[in-house]
Amino acid sequence: MRTFTPNIWFAGDAEEAAELYARVLPSTRITRTDRYPTEGLLPFQEQLAGKVLTVMLSGPGCDLVHINAGPEFRPTPASSFTVTFGAADDPGAVAALDAAASALAEGGRVLMPLQQYPFSDRYTWVEDRYGVSWQLTVAFPDAPAEASIVPTLLFGGPAQDRAAEAIAEWTALLPGSEVVRTVPYPEATGPAASGAVMFAEVRLADQRVFVMDAGSAQDTTFTPAVSYQLACPDQAEIDRLWTALSTVPEAEQCGWCVDRFGVSWQIVPANMDELMERPHAFEHMMEMKKLVIDDF
User: What is the Cα–Cα distance from 21 to 11, expressed in whole angstroms?
Assistant: First the structure.
């Protein structure tokens, strides 16, 4: 289990989305599927008994967990995934990017058209039919040319110009984290102030992450539809991260919390699979806010 794993909430179509992503994203495959139990569910979950609960995909540099649930949450472009298909001079990478852009845009919408930009020889930003946003590109200048999937956070709306603050907090909080590089806005750009984060690459625990302040006005921000799971070695680490990150009491549920920037986290034990094999584990988990290992 990775320490840092993005989770995406789907309205009953997690399997369908996983099959699409495994088909069009580079070197990505479905590695595991888990099902809801048949008892111990909350009333709103009863129709899901025995159905798929989560689907895990493994991609280049990033795992993704799909949560099969209801229509309560929908992703926004504030939480996207930047997918690099390879080098700009690799015809195969360009063809794969173009094919993925077409497949992902079907039934969705194009946020930035497929073309050359100052920062990439070929790039597009699409929101797919499930609401998930993808930034598809060939390798950025001076960046690794191999395929990769990188979680990307856009600070806009109520979180505007808070990217640097979040980066400082998260990298200090998560062991093994570091700021790889930061590019500031040289002057005020839309709602972004001069010196705000135009682009940053950070490593949060074992995951490469991109972070940006929005350079154009945003009418959406982070939602629980994309959350970031943190796997902890023991209860002390769960307690430490929970105390630091949970700032919205009404959002606390079975390991989920929301920080002061509006970003959702799932703070879980690293041996979660083992704990979930215990009798009535799912029922016990649903009764918790912060997860307590001894209560499973």
Answer: 16
